[in-house]
Each structure stands twice: as structure tokens, then as C-alpha cells.
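dumping this here so i dont lose it again. seq + smiles for pyridoxal-5'-phosphate
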Amino acid sequence: MKKHNFSAGPAILPATVMEQASQAALDFNGMGLSILEISHRSPEFTAVLNEAEVLVRDIAGLSDDYAVLFLQGGASSQFFMTAMNLLDEHEMAAYADTGSWSAKAIKEARNFGKVEVVASSKEQNYTFIPKGYEVPANAKYFHLTSNNTIFGTQYHKWPETPVPLVADMSSDIFSRPIDMERFGLIYAGAQKNIGPAGLTLVIVRPDILGKVSRTIPTMLDYRTHIAKKSTFNTPPVFPIYVAMLTFRWIKANGGLPAMATRNAAKAQLLYQEVDANPLFTGIVTDKADRSQMNATFVMAPGKEELQGAFLDMCKEAGCIGVKGHRSVGGFRASMYNAMDIESVQVLVDVMKGFAEKYG
Ligand SMILES: *Cc1c(COP(=O)(O)O)cnc(C)c1O
């Protein structure tokens, strides 16, 4: 039976990408060698790396003012690397606390300088995106998490700030056009919308670097990777190859405007059912803040004991990964770029069938 993969990450990738990646694992471009066993300095891999960068620039509409880096260590390493590279000990950075990932970024940044949390939805269990706050002009940057993977909220409008934005876009990068000029740095773990785990994409404006007084270990200094074009050491060859295939897929399918249209249609289909179905209720209090990538919902009040039965029904229909994160409970349907609307329709039909049986 076809599986509909609603996992939050590592997550669904386009089927064509998976087929090409499998082929390259056996014989890459007719070399008689696997992509897994060739040098990261070979002309063949250099071409992959170059194409991946060109595609990122093309898809995101990047000017030459930005550098594109393919790093390791996950988004979690960016929590400290951003602060280590951008924030001096006596300086201050402003942060928004909109979920577990934001909170982790804040904790790590505090090791390097002062952090002011200027906006937070923590007291309301992260059920909305804060609005109507000021970012102080003396902040070095303002850090936000564009999509809160666990709680199911997403910025649909960027805050006006007098300082550059630094964004964790791990779970919604390339799901919609990016207003790049507002950002000094964007980072994203690959395993949600880009490719396999083990790769972290960083887009950075080099003019914001080199302004802190501390010594930065070579590997953790963005300038190292800019100067060496992501090959200071062995980069994650296979994840970069798969990411490049995904970028090709995004471009061939209409780029970010088309991704946005596709993602909006999927999200609308699912949320419409969450709102209409008497057995379910959404947990994001301000509907305008709902994530188009990760839809969170729970059993309606008084129906909590039906949770297991719903998950069983999802499984029977081939819908995988619908169980909510342990800190939220209930359900989470992740609908990243690669998911077709047909899969969302299958889940919606399960929800309807569930209400008929138990409603
Ligand atoms: C998954 C996720 C992370 C963690 O990514 P790792 O690559 O596992 O370190 C960080 N931020 C957000 C928004 C995420 O969705």
C-alpha cells in the first residue's frame, strides 16, 4: 500500500529525487563508481556543489551580496554558531521565543553575549506568533524561528526591525518566496524540506561577519567556509547531492511561487477539515498564525480517549507520522513541499470517516 508520509523530519522527499539518488548510490553519472565513494574534490562532485549553489541562488533570488554554505552539525549547531560569529560579549541580540527551537537558540546565544527576549508566546504554550513589539535598535540582530515545527505556528509577515533578521528556517525553507533583503543570515537543517539529515544550509551576508573580538575555532567561523566554498573539510557529499536534486525539482516545478501555491492549497484542505470536524480541534489560537508545513490538532474536548483509535485508522490508510510531538500531544500532519495534495486528501478522508464512525 502507498504510504503517505506526514513525518516532521527526517521527512518526505520527491519520489523522482529518491530514484535518482538511489541510482547515484550505485553508479554516479556512468562513472562506474558510487556517489558515496568519490572524492569531494573530484570534478564530478565539484560540479554537483556548484550546481547546488547556483540553484539555491536562482530559487531564492539571491544577489551576490549573499554567500551560500553547505555545513554540518544540524540547525542545532547554528544556535551557537550564529551568536559566536555575530554577537560580542558585551553586545545584545534580540530574540523571539516562539517554541522549543527558539528557546534552544536563546539558551545557546546566552553563552556568547546578552540576549533580550523581546517577544514570547511561552506562557500560552506557544499557541500563537507574538505581534506588536519593538526590537531595540542597539541589538546586533533579531533572531526568529520562521516556522515552529512542534507547535504548528508560522510567521506569515516578517516583523519590522531596525536590525538584520537571523532566521531558523529549518522547517519551511523554500516553501514560499523569501524576502531576502531583510535577512542577514538564514539557516536550515536539510531534513525537512531539502534532503537527508547531515546537511545544514546557511545563507549569509558576509558583511555582517568579522565584527566580534573573540577567537572563533576555524571550523566554526563562517568565513572559513565562505573562503573555501564549503570544502574546508569533507562536506556531506551525499546529502549535498540529494539536496541538489531537490533544488532541481523545486525549479522544474515552478520555483518558490509554485511551492507557496501548492502548500497553501494543502494546508487549506487540512485545516478546513480540522475546523469542520466535530471530533478535532486546532491548537493554534490565532488561525492567521497556522503553519502551512506542520498542522497541529488534538481530539475535541471530551473525546481524548479516541486518540489511539484515530492513529490506528491513519495507519490503516497508510498515513504515517501523524502522532503529535510529545510536548504537545494530539496530532501533527507535516506537509512539506514534496507532499502531494492527494496524500492530504487521504488524511482528510480518514478524519471524515472517523467522525462518521465515532461522532
Ligand atoms: C528540526 C528543527 C531543528 C533541529 O534541527 P537539527 O538539524 O536536528 O539540529 C531546529 N529548528 C527547527 C525549526 C527545526 O524544525
